[in-house]
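WARN no homologs supplied; continuing
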Amino acid sequence: MSIYDFKVRDGHGQEVALDKYKGKVLLVVNTATGCGFTPQYDGLQKLYKKYNEQGFEILDFPCNQFANQAPGSNEEIASFCTGRFGITFEQFAKIDVNGKNEALLYTYLKNQQGGLMGKKIKWNFTKFLVDRNGKVVHRFAPTKTPESIDSAIKQIL
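OK structure emitted
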């Protein structure tokens, strides 16, 4: 099993097979629009612009599980992110990253990179870095800014 075996829903509810990202470096992030870490969208967009032409993609999964910090609809969240931060990377439908309704993708990511933080996602803006072969190579805590993980991305590009 690899990340490419999963299917997720885009912001319009359409199924997307992650195998469309084969050969790319991926940063998978659970996000929220009303979180103290929300300004990280700016840094994520800068990383995307810097590395996208080299095969880098960001997969953004809004999540409302942490203090209801992503309360809007998929459309409202997308509008906020594009309007306030100029987001151009792919944003998917809202998901759960923990618990009985957690997305299978996140079960997989957590099993691959439990790390010191354990298997549970502690908060929004937890980041998983996936290499071009689909291997989950790093898990970064929400406190790790996009700028602070630039070198890890550059290294596997």
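The radius of gyration is 14 Å.
OK
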